[in-house]
Design goal:
This protein is mainly beta. The chain has strands at residues 13-18, 21-26, 35-41, 44-50, 59-61, 66-69, 74-80, 88-91, 94-95, 102-107, 110-115, 124-130, 133-142, 148-150, 155-158, 163-169, 176-179, 182-183, 190-195, 198-203, 212-218, 221-230.
Length: 237
């Protein structure tokens, strides 16, 4: 009997009696098999208590290192050995919470973290913890090269005036301004200032020699435009 109820033989519960020996064999033990077992024969009885302990939950499938392109999303996934209470996700020492940037999902023993709108600064060590068990992996976000989304346009200006050439990058990145093959430097007549992804070149006190093709270069990317100078009309007194 188990807890006072008579046991019947089954695939999991095998009863045998050979000579003076009686045996009960339970295979694939579960927590529900815990209890008091008793064997009775001709007025004699013997009993014992069986305790079935839960197997410690462990990570059956660990996180794997991942490399993705900037701007996309990364999915980090791991699997526990059995269904367990919620786990803790971390980026470095920072505990992650669900929101616009992060999505945390748990479906049975499967755990998933999605990191969206990836930037190079999202690269680093991510970990998933349950009790004293931890699995971690490195996420590497490869930066996309900056591209010109707003290109230079041809311009016409009058001698002696100021000409401004503007262009825009897909993201902030260092640029170089050129007049033909000559690299321009900030100075009395040239003013180079950049605000994030917006790039601008100002040429003051225009002269006829300033008529040329100007380029803004960022890595392998380039945008060019021609500057045409009109002579200033001088009227006699």
């Amino acid at each position: 009997t188990k807890d006072g109820k008579t046991l019947r033989g089954s695939a999991r519960c095998q009863l045998s009696h050979e000579g003076h020996r009686a045996q009960l064999l339970i295979t694939g033990a579960t927590l529900q098999d815990s209890g008091r077992y008793k064997c009775e024969a001709g007025g004699a009885c013997s009993s014992s208590i069986v305790r079935v302990h839960a197997r410690p939950v462990r990570f059956q499938e660990a996180l794997k290192d991942l490399e993705v392109l900037e701007g996309g999303a990364a999915t980090l996934r791991c699997v526990l050995s059995s269904v367990a209470a919620p786990v803790k996700w971390c980026y470095g020492n920072n505990v992650l919470r669900p929101g616009d940037k992060y999505s945390l999902r748990q479906e049975g023993a499967m755990l998933e973290l999605v990191v969206r709108n990836l930037r190079p600064q999202d690269s680093g060590r991510y970990s998933c913890s349950f009790g004293d068990q931890t699995t971690s992996a490195t996420l590497t976000v490869t930066a996309l090269p900056a591209q010109f989304i707003g290109k230079l346009r041809n311009k016409e200006a009058t001698e002696g005036a100021t000409a401004t050439l503007r262009c825009e990058l897909s993201k902030a990145a260092p640029v170089e301004w050129r007049k033909g093959s000559e690299t321009l430097r900030d100075g009395d007549r040239y003013c180079l200032r950049q605000d994030g992804a917006m790039c601008e070149l100002q040429i003051r006190g225009l002269a006829m020699v300033d008529a040329a093709e100007y380029s803004c270069v960022c890595g392998e990317e380039r945008t060019s435009a021609s500057l045409t100078i009109r002579r200033k009309t001088v009227y006699p007194e």
